[in-house]
Specification:
Layout (H helix, E strand, L loop, with lengths): L1 H34 L8 E6 L2 E9 L5 E4 L3 E4 L5 H13 L3 E4 L5 E4 L6 E7 L3 E5 L5 E3 L7 H7 L13 H33 L17 H67 L4 H87 L3 E9 L5 E5 L11 E7 L4
Parallel strand pairs: 8-12
Antiparallel strand pairs: 1-2, 1-7, 3-4, 5-6, 8-9, 10-11, 10-12
Helix pairs in contact: 4-5, 4-6, 5-6
Length: about 425
């Protein structure tokens, strides 16, 4: 019986001892794993000495890799584990007498036991996220943080480079823009056809063609055709008026030219009659009155011939001016038509470019609708990590990958081909 009792006791105590050993092993392993982290520039270390609150401090690892500790001064920290830094600080403090202020106000020197020195990492270096994410920038590191947790802390994924608000709303807007641009393109095509017809002095065909706009744009095309028609009718009226003035001036010039010829013939006859009368007067065969009448008739015919010549010259000048005005009116009309044609061609090119852009936006919005609803975009995560020696590594990451302080994560969402 005693033997059986002894065996039972041994069997019952063996199981707790096993679990205690397992827990201790896990704690030791965890402590060792955490101690393996090496300090780097940017980490913040907090240390304290039991019973000496004025020596507690939070210090950051400087660019030179050291930390500044009261009493001790600057001490290397970069590349060291937390346990190693703690051991070094314990060694430094135990060599010195630390001034401590007592409650009565006196300052005394006291020694520090190694177990009184406490060191911990108060703040790790941040990690950095950039790319297709809502809030790019730094994220405070927490031990055990994964890529997924960091992305969630930064607001989640976002196709920021496209600045998409709602692809469904955008698709409706782009479709409306496309419809308007198609109508504008058709109207400009109709305008160009009408202008080319006017330049060729032919009337535009009234039959419907493939370029004629549909729906309400038919009214715009009709208004355009009517406006061009009225412009040409007004031009034709002005041209007929100027041409009629030119014809009148031409007829008047012809009449005056004929009258001038007759006046010149009459003046010549009067001069001959005067010369003959004067010759006969010298011979005594005619009276002086007859010579005076001949002389008066000569002067009158000469004056009348001169006036007719002046009127004929004026009429010729009016005819030339009317002809020039007629040509100028036609040239101005052609210049105006060419100018409007050039502007219409320019507008058509601009509308074509805008229409192409609207169609591309519509295609992109359609693709984003798929990403929005089905999440068909491919997420590519790239992690950049720098080791203790300063060498940077590029790692293809996953959302479940654990991060380390100072890691940089690039997030890229590859959209489906448009």
């Amino acid at each position: 019986m005693p033997l059986m009792f002894t065996l039972s006791v041994r069997k019952s105590t063996a199981l707790p001892i096993f679990f205690i050993s397992l827990v201790v092993s896990i704690l030791v392993y965890t402590s060792s794993a955490r101690a393996e982290y090496k300090l780097a520039t940017g980490d913040v270390v907090e240390f304290s000495i039991a019973g000496v609150s004025e020596l507690s401090a939070r210090v950051q690892v400087d660019l030179d890799g050291s930390v500044s500790v009261p009493i001790i001064g600057s001490i290397p920290a970069r590349g060291l584990s937390l346990n190693t830094l703690r051991t070094n600080l314990q060694s430094e403090f135990t060599k010195r007498q630390i001034p401590v202020r007592e409650p009565n106000g006196r300052t005394v020197l006291t020694s520090v036991a190694p177990e009184d020195v406490s060191v911990r990492i108060a703040e790790y270096r941040p990690i950095y996220l950039y790319g297709d994410i809502t809030r790019a920038g730094e994220v405070a590191y927490r031990p055990g943080m994964t890529v997924r947790q960091a992305i969630a802390h930064a607001g989640g994924f976002d196709v920021g480079r496209l600045r998409v608000s709602n692809p469904y709303v955008d698709a409706v807007e782009y479709q409306a823009q496309r419809t308007i641009l198609v109508q504008e393109l058709a109207v400009e095509g109709e305008r160009i056809k009408q202008l080319q017809a006017q330049l060729q002095h032919t009337s535009a065909s009234s039959s419907e063609s493939s370029t004629r706009p549909i729906g309400s744009s038919l009214d715009e095309a009709s208004v355009l055709a009517e406006r061009l028609k009225l412009q040409q009718q007004d031009h034709a009226k002005q041209l007929r008026y100027v041409q009629a003035s030119a014809e009148i001036a031409s007829s008047r010039a012809a009449i005056l030219s004929e009258q001038k010829s007759k006046e010149e013939e009459g003046s010549k006859a009067d001069i001959e009659d005067f010369e003959r009368s004067r010759s006969l007067l010298e011979k005594g065969t005619v009276s002086t009155q007859r010579v005076s009448d001949a002389r008066r008739a000569m002067l009158l015919s000469s004056t009348r011939a001169l006036q007719t010549a002046v009127e004929a010259t004026r009429a010729q000048r009016e005819y030339e001016e009317a002809t020039r005005d007629s040509q100028q009116l036609q040239d101005q009309n052609r210049i105006q038509l060419l100018t409007e044609l050039q502007e219409a061609l320019s507008r058509r090119s601009r509308v074509k470019a805008q229409l192409s852009a609207a169609q591309q936006k519509l295609a992109i919005a359609g693709s984003l609708k798929t990403v929005w609803t089905e999440g068909t975009g491919t997420t590519v995560l790239t992690l950049y990590r720098t080791d203790e020696t300063g060498v940077e590594s590029k790692i293809k990451a996953t959302e479940s990958m654990a991060l380390l302080p100072g890691d940089v994560v690039e997030i890229a969402i590859k959209l489906p081909a448009l």
